[in-house]
Design goal:
44% of the residues lie in helices and 15% in strands. It contains 20 helices and 17 strands. The protein has helices spanning 3-17, 23-37, 76-83, 146-170, 175-188, 197-210, 226-235, 257-262, 279-282, 298-310, 336-341, 347-353, 369-385, 394-402, 408-425, 438-441, 455-459, 467-485, 490-496, 501-510, and strands at residues 42-49, 52-59, 70-71, 88-90, 115-123, 126-135, 216-219, 244-248, 263-264, 276-277, 287-291, 312-313, 322-323, 327-332, 356-359, 390-392, 434-436.
Amino acid sequence: MTTSQFTQSLLAIVSDLSQPLSEGERYQRLLRAVKQVFPCDATALLRLEQNRLIPLAINGLSEDTLGRQFDIDQHPRLAAILLSRNPVRFDADSPLPDPYDGLIDVGRDGLHVHDCMGVALHIDGKPWGVLTLDAAATGTFDDTRTTELEAFIRLAEATVKAAELIRSLETRLQHEHQVVQAVLAERSGQTMVGKSDAMQVLRREIGVVAESDLSVLICGETGVGKELVAQQIHQHSNRADAALVYVNCAALPENLIESELFGHVKGAFSGATHSRAGKFELANGGTLFLDEVGEIPIAAQAKLLRALQSGEIQRIGNDQPLSVDVRIIAATNRNLKEEVSAGRFRADLYHRLSVYPIQVPPLRERQRDVLLLAGFFVEQQRRRLGLQAVRIEPSAQTELLRYDWPGNIRELEHTISRAMLKAKSLHPTTPSLLHICNTDLNLNPSSTPIVSSGVSDALAAPEVVNLKQATDDFQRQIISQSLASNNGNQAQAAKDIGMDRSNFYRLRKRLNI
C-alpha cells in the first residue's frame, strides 16, 4: 500500500469511526480497519484492569477468548507490549509463550501463532491497554512501516478515548459505585460474564434497583448465579462500603434459626455459653442476603416478618429490642407464589420480600454466552493446573452450544474442569497447547422417549402413572448414580448435581437412600 493509499484509507476509517456508535461497535470497526490496513489473521483490543488485560473486542480469534482474562504476570509477551511506548514485534522463534496459541480461527494447522506484534495504548499519558496483531505465517509483518503503524496507534487511542468519554458521560451518576464495585469484584475474584440480550436486561434491572433500599427477590433455577447477582446489587448500592452478610437458609437447623438471625445472650438456652450477635446485627448498615429463603420453615417465617416490618430485633433471652438498618436481598429456586398457594410460605412475607423481583435467566436462554463463560472457566483452570495454553476445539464449542445445561453455570464450570483434567490425563507430559474435544466434555443429550409402533400398543389403554412416585424414582436414580461416581462422598455428589448440601441430605433421607 502506497503512502497515498494509506492516507486515503486512514481518512475513510476516521470518517467511519466518527459516526454515532455504541462502544462495542466502535471497537469492532476499529479492529476490522486494522485487518484492512495491516495484513494479519487476528487482532484484539484489551483493556487494562488492575493487573489483568480484559478482551473488549476480537477479530479472527475464537469466540471464547472474550471470556478470558490475561494476568500480566503470567503472559510475558503482553507484559512486554504494555511496558513499551513503541510497537513490539516478537521473533518467530521467541521462547516467550504466546497468549493466543490455540485461539486463532485458521484451522488446526494454524493453531500456533508465528508472527506476533502489539502496541500499548495510552490515554492522557496513562497505560489503557493493548492492541495486538497476530498471524499464522512467519514474516507477515516484515513490510510493516513504522510511520504507518504509529499513525494507526494514534487513531486507535483517539477511538478509545472517544468511547471512554461517551461511557463516562453515560455513567457519571454511578461512577463512585462503579469504583467500589470494581474493588470488591477484584477482591472476590468474581464477575458477571455475558453479552446476550438476557444478560443486558439483567444488568439493567440490577442498575435500576441497586441504589434504592427496596427488598429484592432473586428468582431462578439452581446454578444460574443468584448469589453473584446479590453481590452485584450490593456493590452498586449506597451500602457498598458496609457488610454483605450471607445466610444459607436451607442449612439452618430449625431449632437454631432464630438464634442465627437475631442472636442470643449467654444462658438463653442449653449450650449458649456466651452471647452472640445474629446476622441482622452483623448486617446493620449493610445488606442481608437470605439465600434459599423458600426453605425457611413456616413457624420461623413469622419472626422474620416481624423483623422486616419493624426494623427491630431481639436476641433470644433479652427483652430489650435493637433497631437495625438492613437492606434485604433474598433468593430462591422455588416458585414462591405456588408455595404461598400450597400454604408452605406466608403471603405477607412473600410480598415483603418481593418488592422488586428479579428473574435470572437460565444458561439455555443466554445464546452464545456459554462460550464466553467456557473461556472464563478455562482460563481459571488453566492457571490452577499450570497449563500454558488451552484451546476449545470447534466441535467442542458446537457441543457446548447444543447442550441444554439443566445445571446452568455451575454445571458448565464443572464440565470444563472435568474436560481439562481428562484432556490433560491423556498426555504423559504437559503439552504446550492442550486441546479440549467434544469427547472430553462427555455431554449427554436429553434422552429421547422410546415410541412403540405396534398396533396393540396403539390400541392399548394408556398406563396410569403416579407422578410423585415417578419423580421420586428418578431422583433416587440420579442421587444413587452421583454417589456411586463419587465413591459415596455426599458433599461432592450434591455439588455435581447442582444441589445445596443440606437440601441433598434432606432429600436423601426422605427417599431412604
